[in-house]
Amino acid sequence: MECGFATKCIYGDGEGFDKDGTGAISFPIYQTATYAHPQVGESTGYDYSRLQNPTRQQVEQVVASLEGGIDALAFSSGMAAITAVMELFQPGDHLITDADLYGGSIRLFRHVSQKNGITFSHIDCAKENLEAYVKENTRAIYIETPTNPMMHVTDIHKVSQIAKKHGLLLIVDNTFMSPYFQKPFTLGADIVIHSGTKFLGGHNDTLAGFAVTNRADIAEKLRFLIKTVGSGLAPFDSWLILRGIKTLPIRMEKAQENARAIVEYLLQEPRILNVYYPGIAATKDYEICRAQASGFGSMLTFEVESKALALHILKSTKLIPFAESLGGTETLLTYPTTQTHADVPEEVRIQNGITDKVLRISAGIEDKKDLIADLKQAIESFEA
Ligand SMILES: *Cc1c(COP(=O)(O)O)cnc(C)c1O
């Protein structure tokens, strides 16, 4: 039976529980490194937990079913997933990536992948003519939409047509929207990446990452890589992500509602110069986002009138913690300049608009009036 999204969050594509015959409703944590074989040449299907573990397999099946992929691989972090995906490429290969990406991805590309002989064009995929950057040795396009932290929206389908025309892989980091709001495979992506640490896990309590694909050849290569490089997700962490995903739809809705309320408050606050959120009507980003996603998410970035005000807000909120990360039950305030994007070269950071006046909020699921009251007292208590 083809179930709806919320049902899949709980049961995956069917066998949500009872694998071990106890009827346990919560999927068991198979805390084992290895498995006994009946005899030579026979296996229970599990040999060693670096290759596969039932709890990890369960969370992989759930995530594959939510994204509509044929396979999902669970890694120990989002960066471990992206690192494994980069192993699909060879020295001499060229990739086109968005200039505005999660800082850790930029660091990986510039300091690890480049050393391994892979070259990049870092461009504004939302605005520039991407096709002009396709070279003989280009193998893939790697995007985030909306981007972290400037919230640029890229038309996934349009990029996928360029990718298909030139035989390139389209890799989409779907962390900010989660499959609840955006399903890149339906728009032409070949690989979808998640930091499972964020919305999928949803509770700021564990790290995880996913690489999902709708292509059998890529799935096979990634399966080889996960067992070879050994960065698969541990059984207990797999269980935490399974538990987090069960409430994904209601968390996404509530966090989006809170984000909208914060955006509305910030837009009428005179000390705020700019608010970046794709759900603000009448912008190009809004139109693209509305067409390709079923919501606008709960991430927002804003620019305040001075660095001093930014620093004041970060030390003055009483409820909202000043912390990196996103997508959890707790609303978090982040300062990209010194946190998530600290390792991005300054000129790149400034070019992307990430100045020392820019703050990012990941809306959680608290009472929105408390969040607004907290931000308001932090902003209004500033004396220039
Ligand atoms: C956090 C994040 C990552 C990295 O994931 P980790 O789980 O922290 O390793 C990658 N992409 C995006 C968009 C992120 O927000």
Structural commentary:
With 384 residues, the chain is of the alpha/beta class. The protein folds into two domains: 5-245, 3-Layer(aba) Sandwich (Aspartate Aminotransferase, domain 2), CATH 3.40.640; 249-380, Aspartate Aminotransferase, domain 1 (Alpha-Beta Complex). It contains 13 helices and eleven strands. The longest helix has 20 residues, at 248-267. The chain is globular, with a radius of gyration of 21 Å.
Distance between the termini: 61 Å
What general outline do the C-alpha atoms trace?
A: globular
* The top level CATH class name of the largest domain: Alpha Beta
Continuous helix count:
13
Order of helices and strands: HHEHEHEEHEHEEHHHEHEHEHEH
The CATH architecture classification of the largest domain is 3-Layer(aba) Sandwich
Strand content: 5-15%
The side-by-side strand order for the widest beta sheet comes to 1-7-6-5-4-2-3
Please identify which CATH superfamily of the largest domain we are dealing with: Type I PLP-dependent aspartate aminotransferase-like (Major domain)
Percent in helix: 25-40%
The unique ligands bound to this protein are: pyridoxal-5'-phosphate
pLDDT under 50 segments (min length 5)?
Answer: none
Domain unit count? 2
Features:
384 residues, alpha/beta, Aspartate Aminotransferase, domain 2, Aspartate Aminotransferase, domain 1, seven-stranded mixed β-sheet, 13 helices, 15% strand, globular, binds pyridoxal-5'-phosphate
